[in-house]
Write a structure and sequence with these properties.
alpha/beta
């Protein structure tokens, strides 16, 4: 019997102990026990984000934290730059447009990373200065990692804030918030934090807080200064997602126990093994040059077409994977390797991929994908 496996780039599988931690009898969110939980979570989030700043906890999906950074950092009519290389880059532009900002899009072909030089040129192209540049650390729709470190290194020398959607990056690969001089970093619970959806997180730098104090966009629920004031007293402005925060407490404890080095190495290895496995099966990657360690996007020829592959994964092997979105629909599959992931998840995904290709009559089954993946682990000295 095939045990169901969720390998979509959000939500991801939840470890059993985490699932149980979210199912305890409810605590009162203004009571002393829950304050203790929040106190621990505050410290754990600082560790995760590699920052001395408070990391705000919102009851929302990841998009809520994206919107929160827009409405807290920008003022009416501000000019902003958006790196637009996939669905989530588009989302930054949509949110900024919804709040009446003057959005300049820097379009990047889907499957490629933005060149830091292109961002620098766009920011210094004359005209009104930019309040902020918005980008993804990991563009989940294409499996691309954008060069956040390089971009933050020069925005910190300017008046422009560097606002990063780290929703499939935080907890996957390094994004040291303070060290790199990122101004705002957001994530969500259902990606590398291996929780159910419903929590969103945001950290702001000192100069982002200064911008927040000046900003005049309308906001009420997502008032980050108000959240910060409450968090400093180990509480939240509104009723928090109590059960999810209890799960988060356990997840952050596990992450601290594992440590950044091992956490990032484990994800990097799984990602490398997944990419090697796809190549071993004779398939092409959508983003060979700047792949994200969170998700691998694999081009699927037609026949069989990505839709048939996704369907066969689910029906034949009880594995849920994602197809492409929008212009990539039917052309790629996306396999996640975030969270509670080890080599056997990778091996299971690749053996299923190979079997699916066999079932659909496209390729003989010979173990080439799995062999390539295991070689990556062996060469890394991981057995
Ligand atoms: C999942 C995701 C989001 C947020 O989506 P929600 O559905 O609002 O949680 C935003 N950006 C990226 C890069 C993502 O992967």
């Amino acid at each position: 019997m095939n045990r169901p496996l969720l390998l979509t780039p959000g939500p991801v599988s939840i470890p059993e102990d985490v699932r149980l931690a979210t199912a305890r009898p409810l605590l009162y969110h203004r009571g002393p026990e829950f304050k203790e939980v929040v106190g621990r979570v505050r410290e754990g989030l600082k560790y995760l984000f590699q920052t001395r700043e408070e990391v705000l906890v919102l009851a929302a999906s990841g998009t809520g934290a994206m919107e929160a950074t827009v409405v807290n950092l920008c003022s009416r009519g501000d000019r902003v730059l958006v790196v637009r290389g996939g669905k989530f880059g588009e989302r930054w532009a949509e949110i900024a447009t919804a709040f009446g900002l003057d959005v300049v899009a820097l379009d990047v072909p889907w499957g490629q990373a933005v060149a830091p030089e292109a961002v620098r040129e766009a920011l210094s192209s004359g005209g009104r200065p930019f309040r902020a540049v918005f980008l993804q650390a990991s563009e989940t729709s294409t499996g691309v990692a954008h060069p956040v470190r390089e971009i933050a290194a020069f925005t910190r020398e300017t008046e422009t804030l560097c606002v990063v959607d780290g929703i499939t990056a935080v907890g996957v690969f390094p994004l040291p918030f303070d060290e790199w001089g990122i101004d705002a970093l957001v994530t969500g619970s259902q990606k590398a934090l291996m929780l159910p959806p419903g929590l969103a997180f945001a950290a702001l730098s000192p100069r982002a807080w200064a911008a927040a104090a000046r900003s005049d966009l309308p906001r009420f629920y997502f008032d980050l200064a108000r959240e910060r004031k409450n968090l400093l007293k180990d509480t939240t402005a509104w009723t928090p997602a109590i059960s999810l925060i209890e799960g988060l407490d356990l997840v952050l404890d596990r992450i601290r126990g594992e440590g950044h080095a091992s956490l990032f190495r484990r994800h990097a290895l799984a990602a490398r093994a997944m990419r090697a496995g796809a190549l071993g099966l004779g398939l092409d990657l959508l983003a060979p040059d700047a792949p994200s360690d969170a998700v691998t996007a694999i081009r699927i020829p037609d026949p069989p077409g990505a839709g048939a592959v996704v369907k066969r994964f689910r029906e034949g092997y009880a594995i849920t994977i994602a197809g492409g979105q929008d212009r990539l629909k039917g052309r790629i599959i996306r396999l996640s390797h975030m969270g509670d992931i080890d080599r056997f998840h990778v091996v299971r995904a690749l053996s299923a991929l190979e079997s699916v290709f066999g079932d659909l009559g496209v390729r003989a089954v010979d173990g080439a994908g799995v062999a390539a993946a295991l070689r990556v682990y062996a060469e890394a000295g991981a057995g």
